[in-house]
Every structure is written in C-alpha cells, then in structure tokens.
Write a structure and sequence with these properties.
Helices cover 40% and strands 19% of the residues. By secondary structure, it is of the alpha/beta class. The protein has a domain of 186 residues: FAD/NAD(P)-binding domain, CATH 3.50.50. It has a seven-stranded mixed beta sheet with strand order 8-7-16-17-18-15-19, sandwiched between helices. Helix 3 packs antiparallel against helix 4. 51% of the residues are buried. Bound molecules: flavin-adenine dinucleotide (FAD).
C-alpha cells in the first residue's frame, strides 16, 4: 500500500471526510482514496463506544440530525448517496422539553406549533415571538441555503440580505434576543439551540444562530437507529466497496511536500503518496504538528489566531435499571434550566474574566447553564437503557488528566449534573446503575480537536479567522472538517458536497 500512489488522502476519517470520500467514489468509482485515522473506528465524533457489561452503547455525539424533512439539505444529500433506505430514521415527537423548577414545557417538533406554544406560555412577549419566528423564516432560511446561493440554485431576497448584513450580522445571540424580549426564561429557552453548535448566547453570532434554529426546527430533525456509528460505517463501506482503503489505528505524523506542492503523508505505518491531501483534523493541531518547519505558513498561522474553537463539552453517560421513560424521563431530549435563568450568562462571563477560577467555572457552567439530556433509549432501545447529559464547558478550568485533582473534578461534575437531572426527574433516583464522565480532555485525547472543541470553530460575530485556509501556500492541501464547514453533521455533508463538486471542476 505504501508504494502505491493515491488520488487523495484524508487525514482523519471523521464524518466530513467520510461524506466527501463517499461522494467522490460514487461519482468516480475508479478513484483511489485512502483514509487514515488514529482511532480504532471510523467517524471521529460520529462514533460510539460500548460497555458490554452494562449492555450499553454510547453515542459520542449524535442526538439530532438537522435538515431531515422535505426541503432539508441533509435528507437530499443522503438520498443522493442512496443511504436513506439503509438508515432507519427516527423522527422524535418533540424538539425538546424545557424544564424549570417543577414545570415542564414540551416543545413540538414543528416551528409553527412551537411559536404557538411559546406565545401561549409567554403571552406578554407575543410581539417579540412573532418577530423572532419571522426572522428565522427569512434570515435563517437565507443562511441555511448558503451553499445553494453560491452555486446559483437558491435566489435570496436581496433586500433581506442587505438588512441582515447591516442590522443582524454584528450582534450576538445575547444582544439579538434581549432586543426582542425581557423575560429571562424565554431568552434561555430560545438560546438553547446554540448548544447544538457549541455556543452560548454570548458566544454565537445572531444571524448564524437564526440559521441553526431554521435547520433544526423548520427543516426537521431525526436520529439514526444504530447510532452515528451506523451512519459512519455505511459511508466507510461505500468507500471500501469502490476500492478505497481505510487505515485505522494509524496516526499521521506529517504532511509531506515537494516544493510548494503536497506529495503525501508520513504515518506510523509508512509513507503514502497523493497529489491531494484533505485535512480533517483541527487546523490549529495540523499547523502545529503535521507540517514540517521551514514552510511559508506564517500568514496562515496569523489568520488562524482569530479562529476560536467552539465550546467543549462535559458529558455524563448513564445506564438505568429500567427504561428511562418508565422512570419519568419521557421525552427523547430535555433542556434543564436553572431557577434563575438570567444568572447564567453573567456568571460565565465573570468566570472567564477572572481567569477561569475553578469554583466560579463549575458554578457558571455546570450549576447555572442549561444542560441537554438525551434519552437514547427512547430513540433506539437496542443501544440499552442509556441517558446522556451534555453541558458546554471550557477546558481552561480542568486539571491535567491522570491527576488526583482531575479525578476529583470528574466526580464533582457527575454529582452536580446528575443531581440537576434528578431534581427535575426524581423517578430516576436510585435507578442509575452506571455513570461515566467525558471531559474536554477526553475529547482532545480521542480527536485532537483544539481545546476539546466538539463543534469546530466558534461562529461568533467576527468571521475573519474563518478564511484562514484561503490562499493556503501548499498546493493540493485542503481543509475538510467542522472547522471550515461549520458545526453539525448537516454542515459536514453540505461542505463535503461542495468540495466534491469543486474537484469535478478542477
Ligand atoms: C457531545 C457532542 C454532541 C454533538 N451532537 C451533535 C448532534 O446531535 N447533531 C449534529 O449535527 N452535530 C452534533 N455534534 C457536532 C458533530 O458531531 C461534529 O461537528 C462533527 O462530528 C465533526 O466532524 P469532523 O468531520 O469535523 O471530524 P471529527 O469528528 O473532529 O474527526 C476528526 C478525525 O481526525 C482524526 N485525527 C486527528 N488527528 C489525526 C492524526 N494525526 N492522524 C490520524 N487521524 C487523526 C481523529 O481521530 C478523528 O477521527 C456534536 C458534537 C459533540 C462533541
């Protein structure tokens, strides 16, 4: 294999790489692609791990695929890849159930119904709610069809684009929502979909976030029975059936160049040659570890300084002794909000201002911020009686792995987050058989993503870092990941499609 020359090499077999390689070999079955990943399974975050003793399979990321109804980008791409029949899709009833104190507010999986539900519950904010959903339908929709806008197949209303550029682009979600509402709980509920793309309300750009709401709510969402690993495995199978090869448990050590052109990669398992190398790993990691010294990469490094990682996640995986639905966790997804929703954003900002003081961070991120809970058993009972708690977090207040402080902190994270869940769903108390925690360090260890980001780059109001790869000085190197595509499976498939089309034109 080492002496052969490949048409393209993919550094990392995450979902963006798999999608792009599957599209390339479908179109041109003779194409020779080689994918190399350091992990033991394909998929990057789109993978699972098992605990056979607990009869549990944990999904590392997926709880919602966006764009899965008619008109959605992802369902169209999955159909083009002939994958829909092989994927058993589950369309949940709820978008999520919002919990605060003793109150549960299940939000339907339908934009119009959510608008009505919120208008009923927050009648004093009715005008703002109508404006908000109109913004999602217009500016959110324009953002959603950005790739089609580029290829001319979607014609936006130019007046809307101008308005958004002038009035919305420079606002954060915090600013955008505070201009429409003064009810802090409503603001927290509406800001919660930001969790799907790794950002709190003070982090994300408002215009970008409107498109996230449009993608996940207006264009439908679904889960894949068999989990994200099933999706990744299917893509891998397509690639291998067409003659592509996937090398697992193999670390890429360096990207090789010949003058100003890429020539291949050096790995633990030898050297491989190709005129094109797609980098699925984090660009910060790649520039620091994969390119030989002496290359003219200073301008790219400078641009990359402006590309901030999205938030990382702390995840608590649980196994219960009975179906979670029977224990009171009836919805497939829940968002748990603190009693004082207005306190979360100022607490996070204070914790960061004060140098990521550990106690302040724990209170701000784990105690006050919304937490997302997925009842995987309700989506796919075959994976076991599995519940997963996610909270966006920062690696900055986590001690090094393998230290007593780190172990103690993991324990505290589990205690705080599980206790919050038990307050809202008391029926789970006494029924948790197994608990384990993934921290931002776990995410770095398994994926090499900078600062444990689960969602590539943060899409804030300043987008100058996002063009770091424009004019990259080594011909044949391309970046292909959530760091350039944007967070989410749907963005990964959309970007992969664009890259595969560009290859055709090249
Ligand atoms: C907790 C969590 C929940 C999420 N939930 C959802 C969701 O419900 N819906 C949704 O749409 N999105 C979700 N996301 C986001 C989504 O999972 C990611 O955006 C997406 O999976 C990122 O894919 P990627 O192609 O950028 O690659 P990654 O998954 O980052 O994979 C990169 C790959 O590169 C490999 N690699 C790195 N360095 C090397 C090297 N030197 N040599 C060889 N291989 C290397 C790694 O092993 C890895 O496999 C979630 C993310 C997280 C963390």
């Amino acid at each position: 294999m080492t002496s052969a020359s490949w048409d393209a090499i993919f550094v990392g077999a995450g979902i963006t790489s798999l999608a792009c390689a599957a599209m390339l070999v479908k179109r041109d079955p003779g194409m020779r692609v080689l994918m190399i990943d350091k992990h033991i399974v394909v998929g990057g975050y789109a993978s699972t791990f098992s605990r056979p003793k607990q009869q549990a399979v944990f999904d590392c990321s997926l709880h919602k695929l966006s764009g899965m109804n008619e008109g959605g980008n992802l369902i169209r791409i999955l159909r083009d890849l002939d994958l829909v029949d092989a994927l058993e899709l589950v369309y949940p009833q709820d978008y999520f159930c919002a919990y605060q104190g003793k109150q549960a507010l299940p939000l339907a999986n339908d934009a119009e119904r959510v608008e009505r539900q919120l208008t009923e519950r927050f009648a004093h904010q009715a005008e703002g709610i109508a404006t908000f959903f109109e913004q999602v339908r217009s500016y959110g929709r324009n953002g959603y069809y950005q790739f089609q806008m580029l290829d001319g197949s979607f014609e936006p209303d130019m007046a809307q684009l101008r308005y958004a550029h002038r009035n919305l682009k420079h606002k954060t979600v915090h600013q955008g929502l505070h201009e429409l509402f003064d009810d802090p709980y409503l603001i927290e509920i509406l800001a919660a979909p930001g969790i799907y793309v790794g950002g709190y309300c003070e982090d994300l750009g408002y215009l970008y976030y409107l498109h996230v709401v449009y993608a996940t709510l207006n264009r439908g969402n679904a889960y894949v029975r068999g989990s994200s690993q099933h999706l990744s495995n299917l893509l891998a199978q397509r690639i291998e059936q067409a003659g592509g090869q996937i090398l697992l448990s193999t670390r890429v050590q360096a990207v090789l160049t010949d003058g100003d052109k890429v020539s291949g990669v050096r790995t633990d398992a030898g050297t491989f040659h190709a005129p094109r190398v797609f980098i699925n790993a984090s660009p910060h990691y790649a520039l620091q570890h994969l390119f030989e010294p002496g290359l003219k990469l200073a301008p790219t490094r400078e641009k990359l300084r402006a590309l901030k990682p999205a938030r990382s996640t702390t995840t608590v995986y649980l196994v219960t002794d009975a179906a979670p639905e029977q224990l009171g966790l009836i919805h497939s997804e829940s968002m748990l909000f603190a009693d004082d929703p207005a306190a979360a954003a100022p607490a996070r900002m204070r914790a960061e201002r004060e140098g990521h003081d550990a106690a302040l961070c724990e209170e701000a991120f784990w105690g006050l911020s919304p937490i997302e809970v997925t009842n995987y058993h309700a989506l796919d009972p075959d994976a076991g009686k599995v519940v997963c708690i996610n909270v966006l977090d920062s690696i900055a207040h986590w001690p090094q792995r393998r230290t007593a402080d780190y172990r103690a902190k993991k324990k505290r994270a589990a205690q705080v987050l599980v206790e919050r869940l038990l307050r809202h769903v008391p029926g789970l108390r006494g029924h948790i058989l197994h608990t384990e925690v993934a921290t931002p360090h776990t995410y770095v260890r398994f994926t090499n993503n900078t600062e444990g980001s689960g969602y590539g780059a943060m899409v804030g109001t300043d987008l100058k870092g996002h063009v770091f790869h424009h004019g990259f000085p080594i011909e044949g190197v391309q970046f292909l990941s959530a760091w350039v595509a944007g967070p989410s499976y749907e963005a990964a498939f959309g970007y992969a499609e664009m890259k595969a089309r560009q290859w055709r034109r090249a």
